[in-house]
Specification:
It contains three helices and five strands; from the N terminus they run H-E-H-E-E-H-E-E. It has 150 residues and is of the alpha/beta class. The chain folds into two domains: 55 residues; 80 residues, Alpha-Beta Plaits. Strands 2-1-5-3-4 form a five-stranded mixed sheet, with helices on one face.
């Protein structure tokens, strides 16, 4: 059985079909690549902008002047001495952050000062009825601790 020779128009039509199908595949690959690139860039921008928020800016560090505060401990053995001294010291303009009773009695007033507050404390020595700084305060939150003596 002999087959008739293929028609030229049919052969050209098949070639054009393959051409358009190949072109469509190439176009799809290009579109996918562009889409993936776009999404990757968008994700990168999203990460850089912290989810759409503006990027943080550098803020200069300004050292804040800390307030000179005092806690008063009664080491005199006289009931109410710390409360009475609290009223007097507040009138001087010093913030009192607490009063307590010392575990041991002392004979003279003592002033324990946190590191960094020594200069400020020296200004108040006479008004706090103390001759000199006794030592370094390492506990609590106050800048200084005044321990009242007899």
């Amino acid at each position: 059985m002999k087959f008739p020779p293929p028609d030229e128009n049919e052969s050209v039509a098949k070639s054009r079909g393959w051409f358009w199908m190949g072109s469509g595949v190439v176009l799809m690959i290009i579109l996918i690549a562009v889409g993936v690139g776009f999404l990757a860039k968008k994700q990168e921008l999203s990460i850089k902008n912290y989810g759409g928020m503006p990027a943080p800016t550098a803020t200069p560090i300004v050292e804040e002047k800390k307030e000179f505060t005092v806690e008063i401990w009664n080491g005199s053995g006289v009931a109410g001495a710390a409360a009475k001294e609290e009223l007097r010291i507040k009138k001087l303009g010093i913030k009192v952050v607490g009063i307590d009773t010392a575990e041991e009695k002392v004979t003279e007033n003592q002033l324990w000062v946190r590191k960094g507050f020594e200069q400020e404390a020296k200004k108040w020595l006479g008004k706090l009825k103390v001759d000199e700084i006794t030592g370094t305060l390492v506990e609590g939150t106050a800048a200084a601790r005044l321990v009242l003596g007899r």
